[in-house]
């Protein structure tokens, strides 16, 4: 009943989830550099990722792993585990609406132009896909179901595009960051105190 590659996929998810945390930390640092942006937006950004990451990424992965780890379970139990995993994955995406709102506001308010303004608009479009995923708990089939064209596939494709753009522009923001903003003297003084 289980796909043979599922344990490998869950292991890959567990290993790469840390990269998303690193990406989010770098985003937070760039948001700190933004001029005219309140620290409240940074705190909201990291809090939403903390709240949404467990039910949206870890819990579904564990449900899939549990189903793959015990393939001798009754088929209806395996179906329940997979349904629970996918409902948590797609259904918890609503938590990330705040992430996209906060990031969009920060990009629009930033006077330094660390990220291009169109990335703020792209974030709003990504937010719309989260709203489309909201009915996953009340529909069992069709485009708004957890495995539907709009709720799952469209949202996933747009999110991958958004994440790709964010990663590219995050890299550009880091590369263009002036050395004066890196707090190098404090780092050097800490290294000198160790010797």
Note the overall shape.
elongated
**From the helix content, strand content and strand pairing, which structural class follows?**
mainly alpha
The percentage of residues in β strands lies in under 5%
Percentage of residues in helical conformation: over 70%
For the termini, the CA-CA separation is: 60 Å
The tally of helices reads: 7
Return the domain count. 1
Radius of gyration over alpha carbons?
Answer: 20 Å
Number of strands: 0
Spans of 5+ residues with little confidence (pLDDT < 50)?
none
Query: How confident is the prediction overall: mean pLDDT?
Result: 84
Biggest beta sheet attributes: none
What is the succession of H and E elements? HHHHHHH
Structural features, described:
There is one protein chain. 74% of the residues lie in helices and 0% in strands. It has helices at residues 6-33, 39-69, 75-91, 96-109, 117-132, 149-175, 184-194. The mean pLDDT is 84. It has 195 residues and is mainly alpha-helical.
Summarize the structure.
The chain has helices at 6-33, 39-69, 75-91, 96-109, 117-132, 149-175, 184-194.
List the helices and strands and how they pair.
Layout: H1 6-33, H2 39-69, H3 75-91, H4 96-109, H5 117-132, H6 149-175, H7 184-194
Helix pairs in contact: 1-2, 1-6, 2-3, 2-4, 4-5, 5-6
């Amino acid at each position: 009943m289980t796909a043979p590659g599922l344990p490998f996929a869950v292991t890959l998810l567990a290993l790469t989830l840390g990269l998303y945390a690193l990406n989010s930390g770098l985003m937070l640092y760039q948001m700190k550099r933004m001029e005219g942006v309140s620290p409240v937006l940074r705190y909201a950004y990291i809090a939403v990722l903390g709240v949404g990451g467990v039910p949206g990424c870890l819990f579904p992965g564990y449900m899939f792993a549990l189903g793959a780890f015990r393939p001798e379970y009754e088929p209806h139990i395996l179906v329940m585990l997979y349904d629970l995993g996918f409902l948590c994955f797609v259904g918890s995406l609503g938590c990330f609406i705040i992430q996209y709102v906060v990031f969009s506001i920060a990009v629009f308010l930033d006077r330094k132009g660390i990220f291009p303004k169109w990335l703020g608009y792209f974030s709003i479009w990504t937010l719309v896909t989260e709203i489309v995923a909201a009915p996953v708990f009340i529909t069992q089939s069709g485009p708004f179901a957890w495995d539907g064209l709009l709720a799952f596939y469209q949202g996933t494709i747009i999110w991958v595009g958004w994440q790709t753009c964010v990663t590219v522009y995050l890299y550009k923001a880091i590369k263009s960051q002036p050395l004066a903003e890196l707090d190098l003297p404090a780092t050097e003084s800490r290294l000198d105190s160790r010797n």
